[in-house]
Prior knowledge:
The structure holds 2 protein chains of 2 kinds. Chain A is of the alpha+beta class.
Amino acid sequence: xxxxxxxxxxxxxxxxxxxxxxxxxxxxxxxxxxxxxxxxxxxxxxxxxxxxxxxxxxxxxxxxxxxxxxxxxxxxxxxxxxxxxxxxxxxxxxxxxxxxxxxxxxxxxxxxxxxxxxxxxxxxxxxxxxxxxxxxxxxxxxxxxxxxxxxxxxxxxxxxxxxxxxxxxxxxxxxxxxxxxxxxxxxxxxxxxxxxxxxxxxxxxxxxxxxxxxxxxxxxxxxxxxxxxxxxxxxxxxxxxxxxxxxxxxxxxxxxxxxxxxxxxxxxxxxxxxxxxxxxxxxxxxxxxxxxxxxxxxxxxxxxxxxxxxxxxxxxxxxxxxxxxxxxxxxxxxxxxxxxxxxxxxxxxxxxxxxxxxxxxxxxxxxxxxxxxxxxxxxxxxxxxxxxxxxxxxxxxxxxxx
Amino acid sequence: xxxxxxxxxxxxxxxxxxxxxxxxxxxxxxxxxxxxxxxxxxxxxxxxxxxxxxxxxxxxxxxxxxxxxxxxxxxxxxxxxxxxxxxxxxxxxxxxxxxxxxxxxxxxxxxxxxxx
Lengths: 402, 116
């Protein structure tokens, strides 16, 4: 890195899109400075616990990253290093990086997994990260994160269309819903991402096809397994009419024990992360995936029947939006396309999916990072837009230098 | 009549291509323009998609309380109004139009409407 002149620092403001910008910075190797992070907030200015934790994760899987925080935490300067993955000698023990999430973490583990999956194909060594600690929530959260099940069944398969398909695995070792006040969990998740590439393949996804099957996972942690049956029954009640091939797995586990030292007993433990939830994935005949996710709120008070129905409606909504990617997957797909070889990739997207703030901002951020602009034109179907993305061939920055 | 005119022009792809890289507008404004809502952004117009209604509400909150913004950031799952969704998907006409997305229904015109 020393031989090349340091590229100019890109400046961003605001706490929104933080993760997406950090990921792009790491992939392109451009240093960024993000200022005014919640600077107008009186109660919690600066970076939130989950964001600090994400920065730590970036530090753990890269070599030579520099992260500078201001005293108030409202400004971050991030100079990315090489993505080394879980190589020996860089903090990995036995080929596994252990990443502990703090108990104050309000975001689900999906918040960390999806960006990590995006970085993993461009790593030098395979990525093997174990998420553990008192802050791992494997269910979906009220903050809008997808559950680990959805990452496993609806996000990891996306990489297949980019030619990244070997040795990808997400193990949910221990489940946990969000704990008290939506903070913390106690779950454990291990991501193994063993397929590294120089460049992802150019993608042409034009036909969304029709939904042929629906799969799902209902989970109960620390509560009666009957909740699963009730969730499944309600969801099937809605979905059976359109998709007879619906199968939802049921997983019942006990709630995780986390240490909760008190003054009397330093070794005290308590159970946390009780609750239930449902993750649904619809697959079309062309392999397009739509997903929906819901979990019981930490405050309780929602019967499983309602949640099951809501999840099913959410899935119908995602199917109705159409296109070859759902909004959960769009960010990952579009970023990987931009990182691809210098060729035009095409992707048909639903207008509702494309027309979200996050995607518009992604288009702008990509351009700021030196990627080419997107071409848009009408799709074959009504309500579909074909997005043409020219790759810049930068996906291999780390591997080329290393 | 002007309202009709405004609605007809919304959601055009060429508009979005033009607006997307216009840095003077925030992403929220771009989308509002694209949907043709610029005249009546605060009002709850008769859009049937809950995403739109939520978006209008969203913008409203952001002006009122800055702190609200921190809570709604970076969602993966859209924050739907589930009562509205239920209403929508229990209506038979909506359901019928959705069926074409599913492989279980026949594409023939006479079989398309059939259910059990």
